């Protein structure tokens, strides 16, 4: 038994499929499955049972995952001690938390996560770095300008990723656009869309998503000014693909699910080196909230 196997088991329990767990951990799915099977043989128990298209923990698996989480938390705590400031007491809190975020997710960070965290950590100074896309996020955590970063996953395997939640991507359209609910993916073919400007990282990510879906919408408005997107939809210039939670209360537009659904995972990432104690505190806080 080793820590790698325990991380694989916990990730599979969290994600519900071995494929999703492997993607989150940036390992090959066969390698993850093989490691879990080896652990099951070593322990002489079955940890997971088939459940539809995914897997579910057995009763024994539930108990073992509880212990695995405790073990991984203990390892994290040991790492945190090693990251204490030189000459400081073990676990002493650093005075500054530096968190980067993509422009898209910055409202999540500054309006929700950081204010709630700061209420319990009033002595901590917080700096937010705004990044235009996942590549920029990766750069600032690799070179040490940020302790953590909030971004869409996946990210390259040299970064440690901690999934926080899945977000549904929906279609936001002018009220006059007659579409059935949910919107079939094929309806996006030839549809007029509000899109980021060409050549930028956000446009590259959207183009990659559309290519995976096999659809070719028509760029109706191309702008990186996010504040202009919903007004453009209200004015009837085109539709928009966006996170449901960020447009649920928007007026003057119609929000529709897509079929099959499109989801994106957001999470916190950091370089594969010990975090400062305050960064570890924030990571644990974000996971629990």
TrEMBL record:
Domain named HTH lysR-type: residues: 1-58
Record keywords: DNA-binding, Transcription, Transcription regulation
Gene3D superfamilies in the cross-refs: 3.40.190.290, Winged helix-like DNA-binding domain superfamily/Winged helix DNA-binding domain (1.10.10.10)
Pfam families: HTH_1, LysR_substrate
The keyword Secreted appears for this protein: no
Record's keyword annotation contains Transcription regulation: yes
Superkingdom of the organism of origin: Bacteria
SUPFAM superfamilies in the record: Periplasmic binding protein-like II, Winged helix' DNA-binding domain
Family listed: Belongs to the LysR transcriptional regulatory family.
PANTHER family recorded: HTH-TYPE TRANSCRIPTIONAL REGULATOR CYNR (PTHR30346:SF28), TRANSCRIPTIONAL DUAL REGULATOR HCAR-RELATED (PTHR30346)
Protein name in the entry: LysR family transcriptional regulator
Taxonomic path: Bacteria, Bacillati, Actinomycetota, Actinomycetes, Streptosporangiales
């Amino acid at each position: 038994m080793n820590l790698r196997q325990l991380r694989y088991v916990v990730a599979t329990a969290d994600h519900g499929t071995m494929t999703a767990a492997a993607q989150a951990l940036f390992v090959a799915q066969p390698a993850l499955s093989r490691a879990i099977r080896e652990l099951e043989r070593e322990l002489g128990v079955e940890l997971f049972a088939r459940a539809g298209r995914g897997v579910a923990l057995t009763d024994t698996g539930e108990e073992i995952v509880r212990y695995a989480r405790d073990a991984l938390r203990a390892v994290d705590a040991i790492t945190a001690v090693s990251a204490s400031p030189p000459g400081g007491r073990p676990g002493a809190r650093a005075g500054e938390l530096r968190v980067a975020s993509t422009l898209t997710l910055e409202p999540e960070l500054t309006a929700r996560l950081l204010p709630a965290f700061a209420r319990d950590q009033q002595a901590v100074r917080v700096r937010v770095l705004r990044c235009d896309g996942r590549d920029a996020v990766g750069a600032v955590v690799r070179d040490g300008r940020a302790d953590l970063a909030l971004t869409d996953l996946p990210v390259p395997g040299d970064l440690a990723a901690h999934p926080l939640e899945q977000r549904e991507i929906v279609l936001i359209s002018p009220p006059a656009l007659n579409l059935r609910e949910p919107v079939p993916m094929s309806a996006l073919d030839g549809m007029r869309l509000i899109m980021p400007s060409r050549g930028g990282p956000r446009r590259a990510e959207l183009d990659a998503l559309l290519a995976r879906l096999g659809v070719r919408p028509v760029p109706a408005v191309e702008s990186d000014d996010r504040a202009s997107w919903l007004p453009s939809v209200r004015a009837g210039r085109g539709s928009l693909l966006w996170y449901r939670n960020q447009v649920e209360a928007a007026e003057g537009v119609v929000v529709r699910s897509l079929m099959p659904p499109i989801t994106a995972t957001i999470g916190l990432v950091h370089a594969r080196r010990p975090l400062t104690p305050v960064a570890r505190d924030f990571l644990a806080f974000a996971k629990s909230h």
